[in-house]
What we know:
mainly alpha, two-stranded parallel sheet, globular
Amino acid sequence: MADDVLAAEKADVLRAAEIARSRALYSARDAVPIALMEHHGVQSVLSFDADFARWPGLKRIHGI
């Protein structure tokens, strides 16, 4: 498990805009981290946000 902070590049922001436009279920607040995780090959995320569980290929780890 890592707790890295990932910097958003222009390509990530453009991908996030594409995600938010193409899928009404995702806001920009969800789309930016999804784009960053795609870019960096992140396959799981520790989050209370259930929206991440709906993204294909991303496993949401929740609960304490």
